[in-house]
């Protein structure tokens, strides 16, 4: 049996010294056999139970992944509970015989073994050394090319390669130490981070343009209090009072920082995304040539023989997949609707507060708490959807490992992206669109009005929603899930080891490596960055600073990933691959869809098109003077249905955000000519955005 096959059929390994074969680097004491000459290439670890007979689970601690166990032998834990197969209920002596048989197979394959003294914590370690002749044979079988002459390797001040990676990640060392799969991930992450620089600069320009021109286009709070003495219709029925438009002047000024004349510069976003994809294709081809991957043949790991399953075996899995995915779509949109209902109810409840200051800030309070609630729901559902995606993929019974991974990635991305983007899509394209008008509102649950956008528009809320979910998700995932939790687990393991009543012996490196978290693959890393790419590309017109925040996050992410891969998780087995796989197709889909979403955000969510139409069609002097009054319609308060108007009010007329004919016109409250002109301009802008 080849060496690689013998190793892959075990259950868990750590290959902390595999690099020493390539570069002759000393990775520290204890990583040699007792003769001090033969280097340790792999460490076999097995667990045994004290004071009672039980299974000693043999594991290879090198890759930290969860490969398939040997069929019919040690693939189950006897302590897992009732209903386990009979093979898992073997005695300690029988397990020892199985270990001896496995070790004999390794020796027969040409490997050299040296057993370490068993420790009282139930762990046993066996050191493995692979002679040069065996390595040469396997390299020949795998067609691995080697240099014809010895190449000297320069190591900074005797730092070993592992320490160098932890302090200064380089692409060459990533590939040599971790393999091509992880090397390509860091290469792609580097290209993506570099291509974030142009849109980051553009977003900062848009933001600075808004700061410098806000005074000329949006009145200050003092000016609003003097000139915008406009009475607005109540935000809810019965308990809400009429309110003054001047109270939202600060909100309008904040909205202008992101929604101004320079926002249209993001029409060039498509070219940036296209350049990113083309640049990565060229970079990937260069790496394939440099890493000798052009002639690499895909090796399929077959789970099921093609003739072993028929259509009936797959049909039930497909039906469960479709029905479950539809149900999860319903759950996602129900969560978004639930948060919207929360905002609607809280607006009515908090509007009854007798405190005038609390009433003045009720809209911002409801919006902020709703966004925080949305973020928490997104984080919880993301973890749930990840587990469900694995279960659904297993039900499909894919034939090969590659097919399994592609289906799992597609399902995970579909569910997690839908979960992350659904609240933002709701605010961008649905909130306030179906709320109705005063006197003819749309209600949910009979008594609660559908929520509306503020007079400055929904863009500022979309901006806050995007920034909170994007930044909150990245901070919590990066700092808590990826850094803090693994660090705490290692501390707890070290604390347990200190409390053991065993003979104190110095720990070798493989003892420390064994307690590290297992490697779960690069899929979570890609998923995190692809979701971020969706935030940056799909809604960048609503939050121009998103690329800058993503750039800052990625600079930190590269360092966190480098430290995590070296110090916090078990070293993975090197995997050779030609590219990033299905992730490239997902990136292409997001890039194309982003053109559509940004076109509709600029046209229908922002105030860019209505302002342009007013300035060039309705303004008497070609300026924005009078735009606020032009964008508000009139409503006669006597037309309120009984019980919905505020009590003890002396107002005869109120205003609301819409383009409708006044109550004294022949077609009262119908859409005005201005409405149809602006709608035509919005649709024309979308077409222009798509074509050019």
Strand content: 5-15%
Radius of gyration: 32 Å
Distance between the termini: 61 Å
Q: How does the helix and strand content classify structurally?
A: alpha+beta
Mean pLDDT figure: 77
Shape: elongated
Count of individual beta strands: 12
Strand order, main sheet: write it out: 2-1-4-3
Low confidence ranges? 1-28, 51-87, 153-157
Number of domains: 2
Number of helices: 23
What profile does the largest beta sheet have?
Answer: 4 strands, antiparallel
Q: Which percent bin holds the helix content?
A: 40-55%
Family: Belongs to the anoctamin family.
Domain Anoctamin dimerisation: 32-151
Domain Anoctamin transmembrane: 175-690
Region (Disordered): 69-91
Describe it for me?
By secondary structure, the protein is α+β, with helices and mostly antiparallel strands. The protein has helices at 3-8, 20-23, 92-108, 132-141, 161-167, 171-178, 180-195, 197-217, 221-227, 249-256, 269-290, 311-350, 356-360, 362-395, 401-429, 459-498, 509-514, 523-538, 546-568, 582-605, 608-618, 627-630, 673-691; strands spanning 42-47, 58-60, 112-115, 123-129, 231-232, 243-244, 436-437, 440-441, 443-444, 448-449, 632-636, 653-657. A hairpin with a 2-residue loop joins β7 and β8. It contains 23 helices and twelve strands. α7 runs antiparallel to α19 and α12 (311-350) packs parallel to α15. A four-stranded antiparallel sheet has the order 2-1-4-3, with helices on one face. It has a two-stranded antiparallel ribbon with strand order 5-6. It has a two-stranded antiparallel sheet with strand order 7-8. Residues 1-28, 51-87 and 153-157 have low confidence and may be disordered. The protein has two domains: 6-49 and 90-153, no CATH class; 182-610, no CATH class. Residues 175-690 form the Anoctamin transmembrane domain.
């Amino acid at each position: 049996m080849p060496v690689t096959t013998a190793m892959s059929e075990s259950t868990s390994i750590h290959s902390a010294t595999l690099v020493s074969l390539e570069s002759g680097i000393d990775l520290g004491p204890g990583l040699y056999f007792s003769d001090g000459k033969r280097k340790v290439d792999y460490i076999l670890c097995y667990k045994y139970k004290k004071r009672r007979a039980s299974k000693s689970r043999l594991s290879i601690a090198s890759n930290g992944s969860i490969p398939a166990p040997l069929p019919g032998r040690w693939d189950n834990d006897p302590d897992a509970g009732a209903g386990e197969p009979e093979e898992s209920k073997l005695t300690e002596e029988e397990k020892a015989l199985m270990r001896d048989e496995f070790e004999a197979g390794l020796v027969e394959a040409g490997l050299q073994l040296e057993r370490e003294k068993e420790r009282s914590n139930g762990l046993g370690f066996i050191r493995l050394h692979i002679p040069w002749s065996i390595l040469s044979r396997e390299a020949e079988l795998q067609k691995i090319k080697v240099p014809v002459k010895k190449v000297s390797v320069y190591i900074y001040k005797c730092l070993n390669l592992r320490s160098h990676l932890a302090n200064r990640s380089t692409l060459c060392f990533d590939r040599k130490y971790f393999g091509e799969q992880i090397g390509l991930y860091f290469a792609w992450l580097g290209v993506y981070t570099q291509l974030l620089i142009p849109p980051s600069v553009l977003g900062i320009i848009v933001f600075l343009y808004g700061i410098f021109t806000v005074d000329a286009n949006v009145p200050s709070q003092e000016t609003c209090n003097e000139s915008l003495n406009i009475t607005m219709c109540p935000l809810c029925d019965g308990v809400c009072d009429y309110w003054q438009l001047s109270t939202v002047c600060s909100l309008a000024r904040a909205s202008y920082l992101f929604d101004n004349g320079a926002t249209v510069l993001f029409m060039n976003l498509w070219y940036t995304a296209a350049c990113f994809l083309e640049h990565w294709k060229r970079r990937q081809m260069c790496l394939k040539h440099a890493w000798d991957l052009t002639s690499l043949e895909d090796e399929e790991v077959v789970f099921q023989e093609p003739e072993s399953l028929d259509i009936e075996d797959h049909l039930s899995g497909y039906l469960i997949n479709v029905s479950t995915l539809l149900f999860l779509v319903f759950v996602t949109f129900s969560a978004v609707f639930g948060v919207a209902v929360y905002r609607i109810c809280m607006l009515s409840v908090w509007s009854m507060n007798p405190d005038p200051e609390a009433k003045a800030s009720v809209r911002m309070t409801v919006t902020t708490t709703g966004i925080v609630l949305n973020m928490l729901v997104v984080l919880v559902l993301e973890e749930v959807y990840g587990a469900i995606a694995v279960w659904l993929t297993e039900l499909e019974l894919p034939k090969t490992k590659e097919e399994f991974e592609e289906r799992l990635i597609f399902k995970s991305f579909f569910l997690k992206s839908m979960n992350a983007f659904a609240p933002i899509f709701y605010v961008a394209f649905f909130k306030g669109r179906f709320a109705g008008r005063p006197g003819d509102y749309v209600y949910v649950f009979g008594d609660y009005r559908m929520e509306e956008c503020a007079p400055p528009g929904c863009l500022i809320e979309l901006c806050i929603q995007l920034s909170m979910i994007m930044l909150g998700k990245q901070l919590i995932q990066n700092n808590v899930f990826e850094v803090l939790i693994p660090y705490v687990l290692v501390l707890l393991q070290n604390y347990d080891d200190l409390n053991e009543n065993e003979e104190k012996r110095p720990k070798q490196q493989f003892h420390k490596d064994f307690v590290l978290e297992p490697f779960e693959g690069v899929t979570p890393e890609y998923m995190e960055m692809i979701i971020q790419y969706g935030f940056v590309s799909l809604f960048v017109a609503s939050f121009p600073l998103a690329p800058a925040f993503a750039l800052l996050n990625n600079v930190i992410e590269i360092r966190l990933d480098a430290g995590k891969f070296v110090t916090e998780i078990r070293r993975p087995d090197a995997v050779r691959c030609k590219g990033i796989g299905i992730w490239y197709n997902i990136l292409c889909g997001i890039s194309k869809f982003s053109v559509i979403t940004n076109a509709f955000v600029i046209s229908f969510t922002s105030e860019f098109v209505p302002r342009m139409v007013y300035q060039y069609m309705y303004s008497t002097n070609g300026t924005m003077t009078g735009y606020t009054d032009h964008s508000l319609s009139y409503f006669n308060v006597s037309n309120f249905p009984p019980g919905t108007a505020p009590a003890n009010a002396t107002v005869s007329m109120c205003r609301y955000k819409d383009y409708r004919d006044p109550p004294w016109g022949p077609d009262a409250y119908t859409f005005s000519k201005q409405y149809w002109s602006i709608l035509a301009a919005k649709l024309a802008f979308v077409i222009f955005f798509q074509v050019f």
